Amino acid sequence: MRRTVFAPSFDQEVEDIAVYVEQAFGEARRRQFLAELGRVCASLASFPGLGLGHHGYATTSMGFVCGQNWIFFEYDDEGIRFLHMVDGRRDKKTVAF
């Protein structure tokens, strides 16, 4: 499996979403969200070709839908770098990377 790196921006965005989930739906749902995200990230580390390059966002990073969010990442043979997690309901033109 590729070496996995989580950028500080990704960590912060995930934490912001997790806090929102906990406030809206409770601690158990927060744990479920984080577990699901962990499984998705592990799958992408093994099969990064699942990501999309043509997602409509102003970035050259690959994207993958996870629930109502987009995960953005870059990869090569050695590793995968998770860069951002963005709410898919936001207007793509207003999202800055």
Q: Would you write up a description of this structure?
A:
The structure is a single chain. The protein is built from 2 helices and 4 strands; from the N terminus they run βααβββ. The chain has 97 residues and is an alpha+beta fold. The protein has a single domain, classed as 2-Layer Sandwich (YaeB-like fold). It has a 4-stranded mixed β-sheet with strand order 1-4-3-2. Strand 3 and strand 4 form a beta hairpin. The N and C termini lie far apart (27 Å).
Major β-sheet profile: 4 strands, mixed
Query: Could you give the order of the helices and strands?
Result: EHHEEE
The CATH topology is YaeB-like fold
Number of domains: 1
With strands numbered from the N-terminus, the spatial order across the biggest sheet is 1-4-3-2
Termini gap? 27 Å
Give the amount of beta strand, in percent: 25-35%
**What is the name of the CATH architecture?**
2-Layer Sandwich
Low-confidence stretches: none
Give a quick set of tags describing it.
alpha+beta, YaeB-like fold, 97 residues, 26% strand, four-stranded mixed beta sheet
What's the SSE blueprint?
Blueprint: E1 3-6, H1 8-25, H2 27-46, E2 62-66, E3 69-75, E4 79-87
Parallel strand pairs: 1-4
Antiparallel strand pairs: 2-3, 3-4
Helix pairs in contact: 1-2
Summarize the structure.
The chain contains two helices and four strands.
